């Protein structure tokens, strides 16, 4: 995987092959950050990276100037790899080894962007639990976005707070946000 833009643009990061991950493709990541670049100043936001795996998305945010990044993954090897990489590049990434669903059941601080990259073989109910817990427990700021990566064959458009989705190759991103007062009337 490589970092697309920012301070570490072009840097390649090679994760150990034994990690149970499927990193977001460079093409999909570049398209995602083009959308986000038109909406946010990266140095002004906080990011929660769920099912963070190799940390691919966290590194991209850090390279673009985001200073408040929290990465959550249940796999110790993934957390160790993110910690080592963040230390090597002096990136401000805090890691927490936890089951994502248990973590989201708590009331935590709010984030401007929450990115979730769960296993593509999740059942629809498992995907639905992510936005449900995020919105139920107030994890997202008022102007924030929850982005769920999934296979293009999975349709999340009927879930509450769904806003839009974009497909890139076999990947899709579904975007969720808090409705504004005009939208909720």
TrEMBL record:
Residue ranges of coiled coil:
none
Record's keyword annotation contains Methyltransferase: yes
Q: What keywords are assigned to this protein?
A: Methyltransferase, Transferase
- Reply yes or no: does the keyword Magnesium apply: no
Which Pfam family, any one of them, does this sequence belong to? Cons_hypoth95
Record NCBIfam families: 16S rRNA (guanine(966)-N(2))-methyltransferase RsmD
What is this protein called in UniProt? 16S rRNA (Guanine(966)-N(2))-methyltransferase RsmD
């Amino acid at each position: 995987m490589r970092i697309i833009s920012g301070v570490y643009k072009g840097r390649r990061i090679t994760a150990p092959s034994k990690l149970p991950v499927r990193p977001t493709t460079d093409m999909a990541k570049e398209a995602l950050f083009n959308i986000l670049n038109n909406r946010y100043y990266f140095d002004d936001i906080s990011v929660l990276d769920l099912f963070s795996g190799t940390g691919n998305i966290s590194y991209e945010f850090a390279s673009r100037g985001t200073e408040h990044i929290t990465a959550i993954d249940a796999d110790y090897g993934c957390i160790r790899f993110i910690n080592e990489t963040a230390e090597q590049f002096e990136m401000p990434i805090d890691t927490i080894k936890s089951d994502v669903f248990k973590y989201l059941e708590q009331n935590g601080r709010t984030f401007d962007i929450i990115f979730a990259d769960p296993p593509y073989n999740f059942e629809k109910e498992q995907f639905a639990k992510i936005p449900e817990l995020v919105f139920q427990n107030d994890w997202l700021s008022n102007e924030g976005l929850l982005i769920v990566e999934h296979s293009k064959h999975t349709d999340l458009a009927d879930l509450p707070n769904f806003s839009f989705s974009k497909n890139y190759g076999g990947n899709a991103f579904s975007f969720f946000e808090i409705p504004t007062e005009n939208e909720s009337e």
